[in-house]
Amino acid sequence: MPASEKPLACVIGDMDLVRPLGLAGIHSAAVATPGELTRYSRFTAAVIDWADPWKAPEKLLERLLEFGRAQSKPPVLYYEGDWDLLLVSRNRGVLGEVFRFSIADPELIEDLVDKERFRELARRLGLPVPPSAVLADGDDAIDALRLPVIVKPLTRQWETWEPLAGKAKALRIETRPELRRLARQLAEAGVDAVVQELIPGPETAIESYHVYIDEGGEIAAEFTGKKIRTYPLELGQSSALEITDDAGVASLGREIVAQLGLRGVAKFDFKRAADGTLHLLEINPRFNLWHHPGARAGVNIPAIVYADLVGLPRPAAGPVTPGVLWCHPRLDYTAARAAGVSTARWVAWMAGCEAKSGMSWDDPLPVVRRGAWHLSRRLLPRRGAAADQAEHFPTAPTGA
Q1: Whole-prediction pTM value?
Q2: What is the 3-state secondary structure (H, E, C) of the chain?
Q3: What CATH number has the domain bearing residue 30?
Q4: Which residues of the chain have pLDDT under 70?
């Protein structure tokens, strides 16, 4: 099917989701804020103004439906964040009238996104998760856990979590008094959190299984990976990743897929203990940044999902090429320097990464035009709303 005749992919996500679709010849409608990279990609054919799916889900839903109803062919909808996922899942009926998408069972999604519900699900199914408790369980339940522990919010409400934790996705706690103080702070901030026994080991011990299960329950595509660096260096945001081909991680991932009766896409995060045992940390039933290096390694999950939903032949899915690297250059430079890596050594390493978040020689406009947008905001601060309004164009620049 010629690219001009293909339905658009509607992407609630970033360049690491737009890019693998573009590599497969699929153009996107990007749901984006002013100045966001996805607005300027040559793979972007339209732009939908973003609204916060946590604070204003009705507004984002309205904008999605307005766009979908205006298309001659139902677009294929992709969702990258937890709140994007919940918006699509909770409104799957009305969205399904104008979009095509692949998604897990609604109750299972709620179980996987909410860490308290996930803890109960893991207990029922006997999943290999570390012992945990929620703050609401009280001191006795928390005191039964072995120190050190990590504390993370039940759902990803970053605006209330970040003032306490910064950019870290979780906090490491070493002592009971420290845990008591944090519990009080979280209660005052209205943040519900889970406390989990820490599996010792560096961030490189975190490995992942990535999978797409079709509507018939067959695994259509899969690959594995591991972290190289995060920032902050412990429990931080991923800044450097590597695609692997680990049979043990894949085998355990498949077992859990079968236990859950999962459909759609998912990422399973494990941490490997010193004895080699894999402990399940979380399951995210949504698209994610790993799909960019995965596509470079020969398994383009977003493109395979698109083919199934549109009725096209599936692109090849493997064999995966292990060793493909991804990095977020700006974030990983900071992480590498904090880890003691010299600038020269890091630049040489980064240049060899097959996938870079937001950067590509064959698609340079996103970085150039976002830089120009930020510069204009600094030089002309009084433009304010007028500058934002100029960015709310209905279609991407020509040449997409």
Answers
A1: 0.90
A2: CCHHHCCCEEEECCHHHHHHHHHCCCCEEEEECCCCHHHHCCCEEEEEECCCCCCCHHHHHHHHHHHHHCCCCCCEEEECCHHHHHHHHHCHHHHCCCCECCCCCHHHHHHHHCHHHHHHHHHHHCCCCCCEEEHHHCHHHHHCCCCCEEEEECCCCHHHHHHHHCCCCCEEECCHHHHHHHHHHHHHHCCCEEEEECCCCCHHHEEEEEEEECCCCCEEEEEEEEEEEEECCCCCEEEEEEEECCHHHHHHHHHHHHHHCCCEEEEEEEEECCCCCEEEEEEECCCCCCHHHHHHCCECHHHHHHHHHHCCCCCCECCCCCCCEEECHHHHHHHHHHCCCCHHHHHHHHHCCCEECCECCCCCHHHHHHHHHHHHHHHCHHHHHHHHHHHCCCCCCCCC
A3: 3.40.50.720
A4: 1-4, 156-158, 370, 374, 381-400
